[in-house]
Amino acid sequence: MVRAIISVLLLGICGPAQQPNGPTHTMTINGADGPAFPISNVSLPRGFPANVAMQGIPGSPFVTYAALGPQVPGFATPYGLVDLDLSAGGVVVLDGLSVPIYQVGPGAAFTASYVVPGAATIGASFAVQTMIADVSTQPGASLTAATDLVVTAGPVVLPLTFGGSEPGRPGAFLDLAPYGISFPFYASNHTAMYVNSDGHCTFLANTTGFLGNPAAFSIGPARIAPCWTDLDPGYGGSVTVTITQGIAPASPTVTVDWLNMAEWQNLGSLHTFSLALDTGTGDIVMTHPATNLALVYDQFMGITPGQLLVPPPPNAFFSVQKNLSALPTAPITGLPNESFWEWFGIPGGTMPFYTPTFPNPWDMAGTTTTFLGMNAAGPVGTPGTYYLGT
């Protein structure tokens, strides 16, 4: 019977449309089930499980067929439209007519995970389509939508270690070049960065500064600081970098996670927050869970080109403090080389380095702050780049 099905697939009649999924014939791979149809560019990260689900009438066997790619338009058969390119033939990959496990279960679904080989070629692609037995139709079976699959590089997770001693460890060097990516930040593109345990990242130069302030932000290297403060990785916390390389139109992303970081000398509470960098657009996202409460020390947050760089005249001065927690409802469009920053603290007590005379308590818990890279004259990462804080 498998041969009969294949013959129907190969000898179908030309037709103008594409086959959709339906209540008795749906295939979902890694959460993608359309529309549109055929389903295109579904990522298969190598070394990670690909999740496959079939929906149909309970007890219905199914046969999944793979070919070089999708075909648009497809061709008609009694079971629906075949949207596979069968010019070079194909292969049965899941055969429910010979292997009983490949059938829809009592809950009207079949689910399984298959690990994509770690040595699979990045960019390799193929398409699959499934025929599911369907007693609700006269032919007795129905075709699902076809899905076009592309092998991608799986996320690379890099646990970081830090040298030196507290307070003020140097940052850990992160080389992006082996992954073929760079990050555009203000007027430059960077193939490397330093990730600091004290809640910030720098470019071009490493630092050991454990507490932020406007002067260090202006004079120091280009810096992104989701939560620059005196943290200590020596009490069970961790800092990891995850590099995810997507397929077009998605851009590779670099995500830094500070997880359960203790304050210096293990005072106060634990802190978890993250920084996500889109290497294609230059967008920056800082996320603070609701549990990331204030420290016993002051905290500094923002982005800067550093190096005493300032916007062009008549605004050629280091920017004033902004209310970052208000950006989602009151976005601010910056100028080229304009910094965004806010210094949080309470005068006196455990915050002797906080020099303002007015209190500005931390209010970023439970927020997501985004800085969108923009450039009216060229790509982000070239002169003229500015940011929309939102």
Care to describe what's here?
The chain has 390 residues and is mainly beta. The protein folds into 2 domains: 2-152, Single Sheet (S-adenosyl-L-methionine-dependent methyltransferases), CATH 2.20.130; 156-389, no CATH class. It contains 2 helices and 29 strands. The strands form 6 sheets. Strands 13, 20, 21, 22, 23, 24, 26, 28 and 29 form a 9-stranded antiparallel beta sheet that branches. Strands 3, 5, 8, 10, 11 and 12 form a 6-stranded mixed beta sheet that branches. A 6-stranded antiparallel beta sheet has the order 14-17-18-19-25-27. The radius of gyration is 27 Å and the shape is elongated. The relative contact order is 0.11. Residues 1-16 have low confidence and may be disordered.
Keywords, separated by commas or semicolons:
single chain; 390 residues; mainly beta; S-adenosyl-L-methionine-dependent methyltransferases; nine-stranded antiparallel beta sheet; six-stranded mixed beta sheet; 2 helices; 29 strands; disordered N terminus
Q: What topology does this entry show?
A:
Elements lengths: L1 H9 L2 E2 L11 E4 L9 E7 L3 E7 L6 E6 L2 E8 L2 E5 L5 E6 L13 E7 L9 E9 L7 E3 L3 E6 L3 E4 L12 E4 L7 E3 L2 E3 L1 E5 L3 E3 L11 H6 L3 E6 L2 E2 L5 E7 L8 E11 L6 E9 L5 E5 L10 E6 L27 E2 L6 E5 L22 E8 L11 E4 L1
Parallel strand pairs: 3-12
Antiparallel strand pairs: 1-6, 2-4, 4-9, 5-8, 5-10, 6-7, 10-11, 10-12, 13-21, 14-17, 15-16, 17-18, 18-19, 19-25, 20-22, 21-22, 22-23, 23-24, 24-28, 25-27, 26-29, 28-29
